[in-house]
Sequence to fold (95 residues):
Amino acid sequence: TAVLTQAGTEVAKAGESIKLQCDLSGFDVNSYRMYWYRQAPGKGLDWLVNYWSSSVNHYSPSIRGQFTASKENSNFYLQMSNLEIEDTAIYYCAR
Fold:
C-alpha cells in the first residue's frame, strides 16, 4: 500500500524560503512520477509540478524559477523561495 505523509502547518513570511517534505512508503519512489498541487483559500486545486527526475520535470508557469521539486531516498520535496502572500495555500504531494 502506497502511503504519502506530509507534516503539519508550515509558516513563513513574505520574502522567506521554506522546504516542504512528503514522506513516501510502500512503493519505489524512482518508479513513479510525483506531483505537487496547492489550493489557495476559496479557490480550486492548482497543479504546480510534474516530477520524474531532476532532468525530467514540468513546472507550472506560475511558479517556474521560484519553486523547485526534488526526490531523495523516500522523500519528495518542494523548495519554495521568495514567498509571496499569494503563495498562501494548502500544498499537496501526490503520486
Observations:
- The chain has one domain: 3-7+30-94.
- Residues 3-7+30-94 form a domain with the Immunoglobulin-like fold (CATH 2.60.40.10).
- The mean pLDDT is 94.
- The CA atoms of residues 50 and 58 lie 5 Å apart.
